[in-house]
Structures are given as structure tokens and as C-alpha cells.
Amino acid sequence: MKSYGQLKLELIHKGIHIPKEIQAASEISCGYCDGQPGEEIALSLAENFIVKALLKGPDKNQPKLKFTNGRIKLDFLNKEIKELEVGIVPLPNFVRDQMKKRSPASENACIDGYCLNLFLRLVGQKNRLNLARETILSI
Question: What are the residue boundaries of the structural domains of the chain, listed by start?
Fold first, then answer.
């Protein structure tokens, strides 16, 4: 069996597909904003072992999520690992709201598992931050 690290690397490289018929389930949709390809979702492969994977369109070699009997499973589509039960790390509402607004804050903030990352940098000759202090504090 592959290690969790190998599975994580595979998911980072390949991304995952979520079939349309299960995208609306609250257990699944809590992990992303609109579910479009290119968006990210955080999966818990084991306790405290999280991977962020890109959502992708259907592909015969693409790992995909399955949702049966209230359980979320990841089908790796290979002989070595058929399915792995996973959890979805819910996207906090304040992050979801920021992402829907498409503001400078939403372009510079993301959730990585359970960590909020704000991307701050100095811009221009006056070395001002790319986000206003009020914007940073409002997140």
C-alpha cells in the first residue's frame, strides 16, 4: 500500500474530480465555494494529515470522490488502492464570503487545511502593504 505521503503527492499532482450528482451534498459542498475546476478543496486523509487538491473535470485517470451511505470515499482508480475514506475540511464562512466578493482580500487570503494564510507584500516605491490595515483586520 502507498503511504499517505505518496497519496498526498498524487492528489497534489492530479487533483480530484467531484461528480455533479454529489456536488450539492452538504458534506461535500462545505469544502469549496462554487465547485468549479481550478478551485481547491482540503481533504483529511487521516487525523491531522491534510492535503489541498485542485478540483478538475472528469478524466478516466482522475481520482474522484464518492459519497455513499453518508461516507466520503476517494477512488484512486488503481489496483493498489481502490478507495480510501476521507474527510472534507469545511471552508469557514468568513473565507467563503471573502471568496465570493472577489476583492483584494479574497485574492490574497486562503485556507490551507486549518490555517489561514494572508499573502502580504510590499509594493511600490513607498513600500506600502498590498492590503490596507483595515482590510487585513476585517478578515
Answer: 4-88, 93-138
- Residue 110, beta-bridge partner list: 117
pTM of the predicted protein model: 0.76
Q: How far apart are CA 94 and CA 75, in angstroms?
A: 31
For the chain, strand residue ranges (E) read: 40-46, 49-54, 64-68, 71-75, 83-85, 87-88, 109-112, 115-118, 122-123, 128-129
Judged on CB neighbours under 10 Å (0-12, 13-18, 19+), 100 is exposed
pLDDT tens digits for range 37-96: 888 899 999 888 999 999 998 888 889 999 989 999 999 877 677 788 999 998 888 777
Q: Are 111 and 51 in contact (CB under 8 A)?
A: no
Residue recorded with cell 473565507? 95
Residue 101 pLDDT greater than 80, yes or no:
no
The model's confidence at residue 1, banded by pLDDT at 50, 70 and 90, is low
Which region, left, alpha or beta, applies to residue 82 given φ > 0 means left and ψ of -120 to 50 means alpha? Answer: alpha
